[in-house]
Specification:
Oligomer: single chain
Strand content: under 5%
Radius of gyration: 13 Å
Number of helices: 5
Distance between the termini: 17 Å
Number of strands: 0
Structural class: mainly alpha
Order of helices and strands: HHHHH
Length: 83
């Protein structure tokens, strides 16, 4: 299923859902990419300062990818309603 995120918080929530779906703890995901649990927590919270490498390493472990597309005005209300 395609998911859309327009904020770091929304992206973090999607990563958290997928991690839980795969029955991984934050500590386990962190261990897979060589980071502390606290770093994964910050990623999932959408906190500023998260390195792109951290994001992409987490996506790799979760077998996810990012696809970019032009933002549509009609979708704004739908996306905001998801969170």
């Amino acid at each position: 299923m395609k998911q859309r995120a327009r904020t770091s918080r929304q992206l973090g929530a999607m990563i958290r859902r997928e991690r839980r779906k795969q029955q991984l703890t934050q500590a386990q995901l962190g261990q897979e990419i060589g980071l502390r649990q606290a770093t994964i927590s910050k990623l999932e919270a959408g906190e500023p300062g998260t390195q792109l490498r951290t994001l992409f390493d987490a996506l790799t472990v979760l077998k996810l990818e990012i696809a970019l597309e032009r933002r549509g005005e009609a979708l704004t209300r739908d996306i905001e309603g998801m969170f």
